[in-house]
Amino acid sequence: MPVTVQDLARVLERAAPLAYQESYDNAGLQCGNPYMEVRGVLIALDCTPAIVDEALRRGCNVVVAHHPVVFKPLKRLTGANEVEQTIIKAIKNDVAIYAAHTNLDNVLQGVNRKLADKLGLQNLQILDPKSGTLGKLITYVPPSHTEAVLQALYQAGAGQVGEYSECSFRMEGNGTFTPGAGTNPHTGTPLQPETTREERVEVLLPLHLQSAALRALQQAHPYEEVAYELIKLENTHQDVGSGMVGDLPAEMSPQEFRRRLREALGVPVVKYTGFEKPIRRVALCGGAGSFLIGKARAAGAQAYVTGDLKYHEYFGAEGRLMLCDVGHFESEQFTGEIFRDLLTDNFGSTFALLTAETLTNPVRYDF
Predict the structure, then answer these.
(1) Which residues bind a divalent metal cation (predicted)?
(2) 183, 257, 283, 301: least buried by Cβ within 10 Å?
């Protein structure tokens, strides 16, 4: 069966849900027919007119990029700038463009995990976990159907707490109700008050999965009218959020660590702040990460690796850690490996899967 753009998007969004993108972002399908058959995918960090040209030259009708080409609303399409030129060229040539941006930054197996792996960090955690992404689903089930209901909820994505799956809380009690005249109750008789044994079942649930979980609950539950409560929680989600922090296998001097950065990332230069203590704990954020400097300090990191730091932001080190600016492109250059692994694992060799040869980094270095 042919793979469509929509199929491809589902796989990417299962790994990096659109609900996890930042409010300013515009991840997802940028242009193209979601029902179009995928003949080939070109993976790139950015999508430019040159990337669309390369996709056409190499037989690809889909570009999967990290950065959205449409970041701000477009008021017209006249080809006046590179963004408009990219969209016009893509539409004219039936090339779909898909972007996974801050939603891919904000998941445990995303951009920051890839960067951390390249640096050999261990004991990894999200640096700034998000709150407001979890809910608690509570329902009341006759004991004979509790396991079936729970399995349905687990299949829909509920009951996951960190590395623990199928997590729930159960408590027995009595449920009371009076079925109406036109009802067909699982237990009891219409118009007669009924008391029956029930189990109160509670599971944690990512809020973006609530529709799927409620459908699963309705289908697996034996009652005509299913009583449930869905409560939004302020708990932080330990697998969702910005940045990452971990430990080096052994202490390094600041000079050794900067050498490791240059070698692991293949960068010609690292901008950094003075720091003379040994480096063991490292925080990082792919892309522009100045907003996490305080979190890196609070996490006890001796080094914080990111890109796009401005002059005055370097003072945020306060002598308590070494800030390392490796460049925006350079800190995200391995994102394509995430796309490649996801698409290969799910679709195999169904279509051509190529990595862009066109360099989109606008920054050059003179030595």
Answers:
(1) 66-67, 105, 328, 332
(2) 183
Q: Are 4 and 36 in contact (CB under 8 A)?
A: yes
Q: Are 70 and 91 in contact (CB under 8 A)?
A: no
pLDDT 10s digits, 187-243: 999 999 999 999 999 999 999 999 999 999 999 999 999 999 999 999 999 999 999
105 is in an annotated binding site: yes
**Rounded alpha-carbon distances, angstroms, from residue 366 to 255, 271, 363:** 22, 14, 10
d(CA 279, CA 263): 17
Instruction: Dig out the tokens for 11 from the structure.
Output: 């796989």
Point out the residues of the chain with pLDDT beneath 50: none
**CATH 3.40.1390.30 is the classification of domain 5-104+333-355:** yes
Is 117 annotated for ligand binding?
no
**Structural domain boundaries in the chain:** 5-104+333-355, 107-127+242-326, 133-233
The 10 Å Cβ neighbour count of residue 318 is 10
Please tell me the distance from the alpha carbon of residue 314 to that of residue 308, in angstroms, as a whole number: 11
Question: At 121, phi and psi to the nearest 5?
Answer: -80, 150
Is 237 annotated as a binding-site member? no
Domain 133-233 -> CATH class = alpha beta
**Is residue 325 part of an annotated ligand binding site?**
no
> pLDDT of 243-275, one tens digit each?
999 999 999 999 999 999 999 999 999 999 999
Beta carbons within 8 Å of 104's beta carbon, 6+ residues apart: 15, 16, 27, 66, 110, 111, 335, 338
Tell me whether residue 332 is annotated as binding. Answer: yes
Strand stretches in 40-168, DSSP E: 40-44, 62-65, 96-99, 122-131, 134-141
**Cα 84 to Cα 104: distance, rounded to the nearest angstrom:** 25
Which residues sit opposite 247 in a β-bridge?
122, 281
By the 10 Å C-beta count (0-12 exposed, 13-18 middle, 19+ buried), 367 is classed as: exposed
